Amino acid sequence: MSRRTLAGVALVVAVALAACAHVLGFTTSEPTAFPHRKHVLSGVACVSCHVGIEGPSSALHIPTDEMCITCHAKPHDTRSCNSCHASRETAAELVETKDHLRFDHAKHLAGPAKGNCMRCHSAVAEGDRHLRPAMATCFKCHDKERDARTCNTCHRDLAEENSLPQSHLAHDGDWIREHGTRAASSGDLCETCHSRQTFCASCHGVTVPVLAGPTRLTNPLSASPHVGNFGARHSLEARAEPGACTTCHQPERCASCHRDRGVAGDTRASPHPPGWVGLTSSENLHGRAARRDPATCASCHSGAGEKLCVQCHAVGGVGGNPHPPGWSSRLPRSALPCRMCHPSGAR
Amino acid sequence: MTRLAAGLALLVGAGTASADPLRLRGDALASAESPAGLLVLDAAGTTGSAISAEALVWMAAQRSPGDDVTGDVLVIALKARDPKGRASGQIGRFVSALGALRPLQIDGAGGRVRLPWHFDVEAMAGVPVLATSVDASRSWDWVAGGRIAQRIGDGGSIGIAYQQERDDGRLAREEVGADAGIAFDARHDAGARVAYDIAGKGLAEAAVTASARRGPLRAEIFASQRSAAHLLPATSLFTVLGDTPAQRLGTVLTWRAAPRLDVVADLGARRASDDVGEDVALRTRLRLDPTGRSSLGCELHRSGGASDAAWTGVRGSGSLALPHSFGLLAEVEVVRPDEDRGRGALWPWMLLAATRKTAAWDAAIAFEASATPEYRHRVDAILQLSRTWSVR
User: Rounded to whole angstroms, what are the CA distances from B102 to A70, A76, B50, B358?
Assistant: First the structure.
């Protein structure tokens, strides 16, 4: 291979790697973060650049070029200093903070910080990015608010803020599966963002045919257990994990839909395969299936439909005893459902 | 569709009240296939931090012969909260969740009181809500329950809950649950819940999860057991078939492989009755811009177990943010069931959508094409229109 070919291949690989690095976010055309640490170590006081922060103001307190040239008398460029020496991410954080937090620098400086910015902005000593103090810093003083979940002391509207938890309760991985276990013990914490009942009810409410789905058109990456062609897969998924559907849906939900589509619940079609009901146990499929996922059976045969079972499984019937070995119940035989098969308390 | 148009007119004509802040959102969804249309009106308002109210009502029209317009109230609740967070309560129709017990939609009241030494007490009582589709008159059953918990650290707690439901005087459900959750530090946390069916004597549900994170990696291990028989009312004949629990065990690894690339590996195993199978998924998402509005996603999924429930699938998605708040979305999925059973060897599905999302409006038009066990081929057109009014 000639040198020219090698150089060409190397160039193509380099361009491809550079493109990949850019697409993956390893390289950006972002300006560098402002060298806060360097300025602090040089003895520049915070308020000499962030003027007016001690007073009541709604400004962002981002220093202007005029502030910079008080020290840097000979700028090397005609562009604004912030266009190269301030990360857009930090500026976005500032705007976000102004929009979503109730915070008064003057009150804090005069009060708990005692004029020392570093009491909260200690991250300046470690680097130049993410200078907004972590919430743990706020909790050093606002422990009562954390304990009482009175988040609106600082946050204007957590739901609108749309910030995801950063540490524990991070909505990563398979959060749909995980959220039930987490919410069981941290429900009040969930409510700090998901304060509206419609959030839970759009899945756990029984009176609506799933609201979560339609919004996926304008928010396709929203988490949902019903993604893609769920309509086709749902019977497989329901069979693979018995009881999973019943966690949110009433069993009757299946029946109403199947009835509308002629899949079950009327004489037009039956979902059961051949050999579903037979005279011997080897010919019967329905017993094993019913034990595996009784909620699926109940989705069509609950209520009045249960009499279908009793036709064979009543005491003395050809269906025999449907109870597993060692079965016991604290219910009297006169109560439902016992009395359906045990008339007058028959054994 | 005339009804739908009338509903739309109502939706567009709806105004806002003067409460501050007040939000009102209307959603209209229409598809060429059943259901023909869905209208949702969602309103919320607060007065300071003490009182808030919300309501969501929906109306749907179906194409099926004999079906008329149906609708219901999903939520209508008035909430009150002590400004210092010591007590809160709500009344109306809402979803009640007591620790480890299953969430339940009720017409009733509920509340929480914070006691000294980090103790919390929650209680609720009401009438369980029945699905609109259930063809049964209400038997005026009731449900009541409570939970007591002690908070641990930031967001964790340990608690026990109890709930009883009566159906026309008969015991329909009686459950006790225990839950625990704790964040050991910013990187390690764990949670667990157990629900025991007292009426049917057996474990209804149990789940445990623990996670650890280090830099761009997060690892979660989980295990769960669920007994479908105990999720049914005790009055159901199907509860006498005994316990055949389904179990699940696995780990989820989340890796931010690059600043804009996330990789999730979900490695699990399932057992239902005598059938043991894998449940494995690999998901990737590449954000094409810093906000993630343009992105590419891919998922490979394998769900094993019983041959009539096993399948393999692949899904790809792409979204592209365009100027003036427009967007394009494409999703493709192909599923291959292990057992054909005359339902087709492959179930392909595709969705193409054009969207526009502004602060006040969400609009989308989509075309969905698929081959399913039900249809050899099916093409559907979907139109979604949402409008939000907000008064501060």
Answer: 64, 65, 28, 36
Q: At B150, is the secondary structure helix, strand, or coil?
A: strand
Rounded to 5°, angle at Cα A294 from B72 and A269: 75
| Strand, coil or helix: A181 | helix
Among the partner residues B94, B131, B240, nearest to A323 by beta-carbon distance: B240
Measured CA angle at A316 (ends A315, A317), to 5 deg: 90
DSSP one-letter code for B83: T
pLDDT at B9 over 70: no
Cβ–Cβ below 8 Å for A228 and B373 = no
Instruction: Choose the mutation target among B34, B160, B237, B260 for the interface with A, i.e. most A CBs under 10 Å.
Output: B237
Q: Which residues have CB under 8 Å from B200's CB, separation 6+?
A: A329, B229, B230, B234, B239
| pLDDT of amino acid B65 | 56
Compute the nearest-CA separation of B253 from chain A (Å): 7
Residue by residue, DSSP assigns B240-292 as GG----EEEEEEEEEEEEETTEEEEEEEEEEEETTEEEEEEEEEEEEESSTTS
Asked if B200's CB is within 8 angstroms of A197's CB, the reply is: no
- CB neighbours (10 Å) of residue A282? 8
Q: Which of A145, A48, A52, A129 is nearest to A94 (CA)?
A: A129
Q: Tens digit of pLDDT for each residue in A95-123?
A: 888 888 888 888 888 888 787 888 888 87
Which residue of chain A is at minimal alpha-carbon distance from B201? A329
Three-state secondary-structure class, residue B316: strand
Give me the residue from B136, B234, B254 closest to A173, CB to CB.
Answer: B254
- Write down the pTM of the prediction: 0.83
B171 contacts in A (CB within 8 Å)?
331, 335
Q: Which of residues 332-351 of B touch A (CB under 8 A)?
A: 333, 335, 337, 341, 347, 349
Q: Is the pLDDT of residue B188 over 80?
A: yes
Exposed, middle or buried: residue A229 (CB in 10 Å: 0-12, 13-18, 19+)? Answer: buried
- Our measurement of the distance from residue A74's CA atom to the centroid of its chain's CA atoms, rounded to an integer in Å, reads 50
Contacts of B90 (CB under 8 A, 6+ apart): A197, B77, B78, B79, B80, B109, B110, B111
B112 phi, psi to nearest 5 deg:
-135, 140
| Nearest chain A CA: its distance from B194 CA (Å) | 9
Residue A214's pLDDT is what? Answer: 47
Count of Cβ atoms closer than 10 Å to residue B258 Cβ: 17
Contact B131 A187 (CB under 8 A): no
Instruction: Give the distance from residue B87's alpha carbon to the nearest chain A alpha carbon, in angstroms.
Output: 9
Q: Residue A30: its pLDDT value, please?
A: 66
Chain B segment 215-244 residues within 8 A of A by beta carbon are 218, 220, 222, 226-229, 231-232, 234-244
Give the C-alpha separation, A285 to B273, whole Å: 14
Minimum distance, in Å, between the CA of residue A59 and any CA atom of chain B: 21
By the 8 A CB rule, do B124 and B109 touch? yes
DSSP B125: E
Nearest residue on chain A to B58, alpha-carbon basis: A208
Lookup result for tokens 């069979």: A239
Q: Which amino acid is at B173?
A: R
For residue B231, the surrounding DSSP H or E stretch is: none
CA distance B178 to B265: 30
Cβ(B358)–Cβ(B370) below 8 Å:
no
C-alpha distance across the termini of chain A, in Å: 91
Task: With CB atoms and an 8 Å threshold, state whether B241 touches A263.
Answer: no
